[in-house]
Amino acid sequence: MVSDFGKRSELFWPPMKALIREVLLSFWKVHILHHAGEAPVHGQWIVTELRRHGYEISPGTLYPLLRRMERLGWLRCKVDPNGGRRARKDYRLTVEGRKVLGLIRKQIEELYKEVVLGAHSNHGGRRA
Ligand SMILES: [Zn+2]
Questions:
Q1: How far, CA to CA in Å, does 25 sit from each of 22, 92, 102, 103?
Q2: How far is the CA of 50 from the centre of ligand 1 (A)?
Q3: What is the Å distance from ligand 1's center to 105 Cα?
Q4: How far is the CA of 33 from the centre of ligand 1 (A)?
Q5: pLDDT tens-digit profile of 56-75?
Q6: How many whole angstroms from 48 Cα to the centroid of ligand 1?
Q7: Spatial distance between the Cα atoms of 12 and 77, rounded to a whole number of angstroms
Q8: CA of 49 to the centre of ligand 1 (A)
Q9: How far apart are CA 106 and CA 99, in angstroms?
Q10: Distance 100 CA to ligand 1 centre (A)
Q11: Confidence (pLDDT) at 2
Q12: CA 128 to centroid of ligand 1, rounded, Å
């Protein structure tokens, strides 16, 4: 599966940086949308969950990403008012985020059919 990607040691492998920036960041956002739609999630939970999938995401990558998703209106953040300066932030999916996730799900399905299952649509008849 994906377990060989994003391991700590591989973060220093130069092509990995490009792979993270160009592709994996988007995968991580999809994971976050999916999980935030099931139950509120917080930073450390996301780090642990992505690690379970074989990805290593640093806080320096995760937190700006969460803020961006919040700014886009996909996630809403709730901070424990009694938690002080280091209060845990819980993120949940907004109505807008759920719409985005629905669109992404269709696209993943399409992509999965073609890239993983190898069902070739006949665009341009290139395979004739
Ligand atoms: Zn997951």
A1: 7, 19, 18, 18
A2: 6
A3: 14
A4: 10
A5: 899 999 999 999 999 999 99
A6: 10
A7: 32
A8: 6
A9: 11
A10: 17
A11: 47
A12: 39
Span from the CA of 107 to the centroid of ligand 1 (angstroms): 18
In this prediction, the residues of the chain whose per-residue pLDDT falls under 70 are 1-13, 120-128
Alpha helices, DSSP H, located in the chain: 14-19, 25-38, 43-52, 59-71, 95-111
pLDDT tens, 11-27? 566 777 888 888 999 99
CATH number of the domain located at residue range(s) 2-118 in this protein: 1.10.10.10
Give which of 47, 50, 56, 59 is closest to 9, Cα–Cα. Answer: 56
Q: From CA 93, how far away is CA 119, in angstroms rounded?
A: 32
Render the burial of 62-95: b for 16+ CB within 10 Å, e for the rest.
Answer: beebbeebbeeebbbeeeeeeeeeeeebbbebbe
Other Cβ atoms within 10 Å of 2 Cβ, number: 10
Q: Could you tell me the distance, in angstroms and rounded to a whole number, from the CA of residue 31 to the centre of ligand 1?
A: 5
